[in-house]
Amino acid sequence: MAGLLPSDALFLGFDSSTQSLKATVLDGNLVIVDSESVHFDTELPHYRTKDGVYRDPSGNGRIVSPTLMWVEALDVLLEKLKSKVDYGKVVAISGSGQQHGSVYWNKHGKAILTSLDPKKPLRIQLEDAFSVRESPIWMDSSTTSQCRELEKAVGGALELSKLTGSRAYERYTGPQIRKIYQTQPDVYNDTERISLVSSFIASILIGNYASIDETDGAGMNLMDIKQRVWSKTILEATAPGLEEKLGHLAPAHAVAGLISSYFVERFHFQKSCIVIQWSGDNPNSLAGLTLNTPGDLAISLGTSDTVFGITSEPQPSLEGHVFPNPVDPNCYMVMLVYKNGSLTREDVRNRCAESSWDTFNKYLERTPSLNGGKLGFYYKEHEILPPLPVGFHRYVLENVDSLNETKVLEVQEFDPPSEVRAIIEGQFLSMRGHAERFGMPTPPNRIIATGGASKNESILKSIASIFGCPVYTVQRPDSASLGAALRAAHGWLCNKEGRFVPISCLYGDKLDKTSLSAKLAFPAGDADLLSKYTVLVNKRMQIEKNLVEKLGRS
Ligand code: 5FX
């Protein structure tokens, strides 16, 4: 804006997420001009994924996705978008990838990438480029022993967190790489380069291996978060020769490379179009939501639910994650992640609300705040936070309204409307409890809600009551691809100026004229109700602690 971006230029942002590949196109005024998506299960049914993934039926927690499906999705998406968007006007591209997922290029990977034939689709050319055809993704929970080994190598979980921003998590890429090295040494030895989902698609776009960016790199348990370099101690504890397979790190606003001739010839992109480093989906959402004030929180409601904010003084702990901020090298983002997000809400909707969001919302509106003391814990997948296995747990707290010492009774089931309120209150009480414990402010200044479920007003109202702050929404729930398009514009500007430029320069005081502005959806809930929820949060955290002691992964 303010003349910093050419008015006739376009900026293209992708989001390669768990269930789909999306694209958002911004013009030089930061207004969305087009968007498109490819849904994996329905548009690429030959991969036979369910929700974009394969779950190991033996229940060992292994969850992967077919790497080639992501490639074919790019073929299909670019075809779909070409009738709507003049690719010749796109001056910069960036993207977002589900965090932590990894791709293993074999010894032919680079040669294949650098000689793509524009007459053929990508999928058939990349078929033989990988040493393993199925990529471990963020939903995987099969690497508990590798996590403990990495923590031990640096003196414990807290030490690993101080060094890398997180204790070891099963879905993190370092433990995943170690598991491949231990269980499939041939695959590991045959691997020339390891990419994250983000750097993987950037590699295809530039026709060469793209660097991993420092922000998504922090989701691997391998990077020294302060120095922003690979930690030699942890690399050695993970697998031999790993540094070479990872390549260099790069800041998120840096240029990954020029678009490859494949896309120039096949889709008529201009030769000078640059690809800005791709990053993780949550960091891109942070950018897309223009989060820039400590005290603002974002809640992203998608396949995973995440809560994040920014800080200049991170204090990594045993809970949550710290990543470099993708649009401000001087500060960090802090984040909590829940695996049981939209798919678990949908499960309750299907079981209790006639598979209808209207009925679900009617039940939510009809039941009282605090749910008469009915508290539920719903883990359809092994949960990350808290680390609990698949299972549903329901309790009734007596006298919840009077704030007296209550008796807690475990029960087998709730009536359908109470079950609906129990999952929604349960998810947000947990977010509030863990966000407070992680040092995020309470009540926050404001919450910006994004992701598919942020369209649901009944859910937003519950967030405003439980957190006691106003809730804002953005024009479009797909903040990750929007954030990627914005980062494309930001990277383009930094490159043009030859120095880092604060991202706010792009919109100045004209944010409300762009597609990035947020609007008030609900004011803060009332103070009396907030204090009752405060009591309920504490009770819930106590019950959760007991569950973790009884059933939790260490
Ligand atoms: C973040 O740490 C996560 O694991 C998830 O939010 C994934 O990024 C979802 F794609």
TrEMBL record:
GO BP of this protein: D-xylose metabolic process; xylulose metabolic process
Keyword Ion transport in record: no
Molecular functions per Gene Ontology: ATP binding; D-xylulokinase activity
Top-level taxonomic group: Eukaryota
Enzyme Commission number: 2.7.1.17
Residues covered by the Carbohydrate kinase FGGY N-terminal domain: 137-286
Domain Carbohydrate kinase FGGY C-terminal: 297-492
Protein name stated in the entry: Xylulose kinase
Family: Belongs to the FGGY kinase family.
